[in-house]
Specification:
Radius of gyration: 37 Å
Strand content: 35-45%
Shape: elongated
Strand order of the largest sheet: 40-41-44-45-47-46-43-42
Distance between the termini: 33 Å
Structural class: mainly beta
Number of helices: 3
């Protein structure tokens, strides 16, 4: 078969390697303590990429080693889907403040390369990299009259700090501070020398951390002062009054202390800190007795700590002379700690199939001995807006079950739709009522998720249509609403996808990040009229259909992979390409190749028989193949290397349907015009340009 009289078989059968998926970016860098407000990222460019997608997961708690555990895949969400450069600034705090919780979080990032213009598959995401903000110094404390000549300021070490700057103000809010010192990053203390004229003055200290990249925001304000020679001594035995400050009142806490003996009249200043706010609050600047009752904005569920300072008036200068603060704060060996009586800090309720209600609650304050002396008054009502005047039961801790999570549990003898609980102390004082709880509805039943089904909506940017989730209400319950949760795994990582509860028994999820070849799992949470719920349905999975263009791209991965296994079609000599051979699919089936002279041209036949190469998600053989194909892709070309293709391929597997080659034209020995006929199952046939799938 001479090339002078026939088209080149090498022109008809083209084995060009096609880019189908971009590689992931390399050299991803994530800042760790380089900014008090943002995490800075950069990565190397990827050849062929037009943009990059960035995902983030936030870890809010450190592990036992003080680090952050890597989050699961489902905890990541997209924060920018189209970054055209190779760097990004993730602004975490627009108005950073020392009290921001974000300073204690770890931020994990991963990057994917994309080229939607050429329709390449996005790269795999990079391995997660963790970064964090540059926090201000925490736990800042200053001496409270321990010395007459210096005030020592201490704080906790800041990771990545190279130095600390210490500022001092005479205003309790820290306004107008003056820098008084700077120390190296390995020193977490500073001694502020105090001259005689500054003795007794209350100073307010602020500490900044810094390194070569950033300076932190200011720390919290710490009160400190140096005593004057001859000042009163430290008040001792500061304590909360028994029966007046540990769950004995709803609105006040009383403290007492031993008198300070001096030759002049002594007055006292009373200060307070708390478990929710470590800053000093001056409750009273002048108390003449040795006791004080605090009723200033006390809240249940909070521990309060009291410290007392003795002072007198210098008869010669008429100036206030302050003594050292009492050793009764939260870090003291004997803190003056108190709290008001509060209701359960958290409450929930369950019900079983026989209609028995079980209440669950927990208390955030009180020692084990104190809690053992309390009881709980349980109230029920038929209406959420009711008066809850009906006492269902009054129970003691000894009659309660303590669950593994430390919560109290009580199965109710009398059932109501709604409940509240009050804590009752040993003297019979009842706390304010807890929040309302209602038993969680039973789980939804019969959850199903559509698979490759046509949904009357637009596909997402990856060419994946939405899925429809359907379910039935519990057979013996009537929930007020439902929340839909989604994950890429059956047993973890579920995240709520419905912003508000829905009342319908179906939901269409137009998942913007859904990818071809990926299953998605769904669970339904039933909720009551209080938006409370705890019973999830069993998970069910499904996947969206593909747009006609995306169908061709995904199908062509199997076709191109199969042709890559052939040897004859890739030989350099045209005559060597003639003949027949058969290759097997990695999963099943065969591809039979036959090339022969036909008239003044060539006829190439490729027959697929149950051919499959790729498993769904490439992880579980039980899931079966993405595509299992059977049919023909044939080419007929004349001596000028022009011609046509013919044949139909039937597809089974994750995306059943048909692909038609009867409208593809061959020009210059390759597909050069026309369209593929694409007909996913349940969709009408649509023509797709011959370039799709071979971008």
């Amino acid at each position: 078969m001479g090339s002078a009289n026939n088209a080149s078989l090498g022109d008809v059968v083209v084995g060009t390697e096609v880019i189908t998926q971009l590689p992931p970016p390399a050299q991803v860098s994530v800042s760790r303590g380089n900014s008090p407000s943002a995490v800075l990222l950069s990565w190397s460019s990827v050849s062929g990429a037009v943009s990059y997608c960035l995902e983030r997961a936030v870890v809010t708690a450190r592990n036992s080693s003080g680090g952050f555990d890597e989050p699961s895949e489902e905890e990541f969400s997209t924060i920018n889907s189209c970054i055209y450069g190779t760097s990004y600034t993730d602004m975490i705090l627009s108005d950073p403040d020392y009290g921001a919780d974000e300073y204690s979080y770890g931020y994990f990032y991963r990057v994917s390369a994309e080229n939607t213009r050429e329709k390449y598959d996005s790269s795999e995401f990079t391995e997660p990299r963790c970064g964090w903000l540059f926090p201000p110094p925490s736990a800042v404390k200053a001496d409270l009259g321990q010395s007459a000549t210096e005030i020592k300021v201490v704080w906790d070490k800041v990771t990545n700090a190279s130095w600390y700057e210490i500022y001092r103000s005479t205003d309790p809010s820290g306004i107008g501070p003056v820098r008084v010192g700077r120390v190296a990053g390995n020193q977490c203390w500073f001694k502020n020398a105090i001259g005689e004229k500054d003795q007794g003055i209350e100073f307010y200290y602020i500490v900044y951390a810094g390194n070569s990249s950033a300076k932190s925001v200011s720390s919290s304000v710490a009160l400190g002062y140096a005593i004057v020679s001859g000042s009163p001594t430290r008040p001792g035995n500061v304590a909360v009054v028994a029966g007046s400050g540990r769950g004995d009142s709803l609105a006040s806490i009383s403290v007492t202390w031993s008198p300070v003996v001096a030759e002049t009249d002594i007055s006292y200043s009373v200060y307070r800190t708390s478990s929710s706010d470590s800053s000093f609050t001056l409750l009273s600047p002048s108390v003449s007795s040795t006791g004080y009752t605090d009723s200033s904005g006390l809240e249940p569920g909070v521990y309060y700590y009291y410290q007392v300072q003795a002072w007198t008036i210098d008869p010669e200068t008429a100036q206030k002379v302050k003594g050292p603060m009492s050793d009764s704060g939260p870090s003291s060996a004997a803190p003056a700690e108190g709290f008001i009586l509060g209701p359960p800090s958290a409450i929930a309720s369950l019900k079983d199939g026989s209609g028995v209600h079980t209440l669950r609650w927990t208390i955030s304050t009180g020692s084990d001995a104190e809690r053992a002396s309390w009881s709980y008054a349980i109230y029920g009502d038929s209406s959420e807006a009711g008066a809850f005047s009906t006492l269902v039961e009054k129970v003691s801790p000894s009659s309660l079950t303590v669950a593994d999570d430390g919560w109290y549990e009580r199965a109710m003898a009398t059932s109501y739709p709604f409940y509240k609980i009050r804590t009752v102390n040993a003297a019979g004082l009842e706390s304010a009522p807890s929040a309302i709880t209602a038993p969680a509805p039973f789980a939804a039943e019969g959850v199903s998720v559509s698979r490759h089904a046509y949904i009357d909506a637009d596909p997402n940017t990856s060419g994946v249509y939405p899925v429809k989730i359907e379910w039935s209400k519990p057979s013996s319950d009537d929930p007020a609403g439902y929340l839909v949760y989604r994950s890429t795994k059956a047993d973890s990582g579920f995240r709520q996808v419905t912003e508000e509860p829905i009342t319908a028994l179906s939901y269409v999820d137009d998942n913007p990040v859904a990818k071809a070849g990926k299953r998605y799992f769904y669970k339904i949470l039933t909720i009551n009229t209080l938006s409370q719920g705890s019973n999830f349905s069993a998970p069910a999975y499904g996947w969206g259909a593909l747009s006609h263009e995306q169908y061709m791209r995904e199908y062509n991965k199997t076709v191109m992979g199969s042709q890559g296994k052939l040897t004859l079609m890739h030989k350099t000599d045209d005559m060597a390409k003639l003949g027949s051979e058969t290759v097997s699919g990695a999963i099943s089936g065969t591809l039979a190749y036959n090339a022969a002279v036909q008239g003044l041209g060539a006829r190439v036949k490729m027959h697929y028989e149950n051919y499959a190469d790729l498993y769904i998600e490439s992880t579980d053989t039980a899931l079966g193949p993405v595509f299992r194909i059977t049919g023909d892709t044939n080419t007929t070309a004349s001596m000028d290397a022009s011609g046509t293709m013919d044949g139909t391929v039937a597809c089974e597997g994750m995306y059943p349907g048909n692909v038609y080659y009867d409208n593809i034209k061959i020009k210059s020995g390759a597909a050069g015009g026309g369209t593929y006929g694409i007909q996913p199952e349940g969709f009408p046939r649509r023509e797709v340009d011959y370039t799709v799938g071979n971008e």
